[in-house]
Amino acid sequence: MAERDKTDGIADRALRVDVSAPRSLCDDGFRPYERYMLQLPLPDGEMLTQRRDILRGGRVAGVLPVDLTRERIVLLRQFRLTAHFANGNGDMIEIVAGRVDAGESETDAARRECIEEIGVAPDALVRLYSVLPTPGLTDELVTSFVGFVDSSRVVAHGGLASETEHIETLVVPLDNALDALRSGRIFNALTVSALQWLALNRGRLRELHDAAVKAGGMVQG
User: Fold this and answer.
1) What is the pLDDT of residues 15-70, one digit of tens each?
2) Whole-number pLDDT of residue 3
3) Which of 34, 116, 163, 207 is an active site residue?
4) Hey, what CATH class is 59-220 in?
């Protein structure tokens, strides 16, 4: 067992693989859906052939909007068909999130999505972490932020009509949101991870806010 206890190697790493050109499985979907064949090298020197179908999701920015003055956060309620199929609770609790447009930075996308979905631009943003929510299915890479906002200016409903979005905004006390997390009432992965970060870093919010303001509106958390 000791030989396999390689604690200094706990990190994702690059691997040299041979990947085929993509074969399109859907030409008119919301995202490209493609099939690949790959040759994966094994530790014993052999090659493993795999066929993988993936949804090309691209880059996404997510934001947990926090109002330090009122000790509130802003969450969203939005219907997701996949959740409806998975557990019957399709009207999900979410954070602000959306695709990063071509030529746009994650920070600019985070600010834009706040305006589109809650009607308020953050006074300061702190970049937190990046995750692949479902790497077995999609290459979607989500970069999450905490954004400091005035929750009294949040609109009741957000979203773009051109994207057929209907979003209800919820301004809730921090304690209530964390209680919902602890009791397992939230299933959206971005929301769960953002609230877990909040639970761990609640005492640092003022420090992070002040550092971001001093830096001109953006820092790395």
Assistant:
1) 999 999 999 999 888 889 999 999 999 999 999 999 999 999 999 999 999 999 99
2) 56
3) 163
4) alpha beta
Burial class, 24, CB count within 10 angstroms (exposed 0-12 / middle 13-18 / buried 19+): exposed
**Residue-range domain boundaries for the chain:** 2-55, 59-220
Q: pTM score, two decimals?
A: 0.90
φ and ψ of 108, to 5 deg: -65, -40
Query: Active-site residue 104, yes or no?
Result: no
Please identify which residue in the block is written with the tokens 């919902």. 180
Q: What is the pLDDT of residues 139-175, one digit of tens each?
A: 999 999 999 999 999 999 887 766 677 899 999 999 9
**Residue 76 near residue 160 (C-beta atoms within 8 A):** no
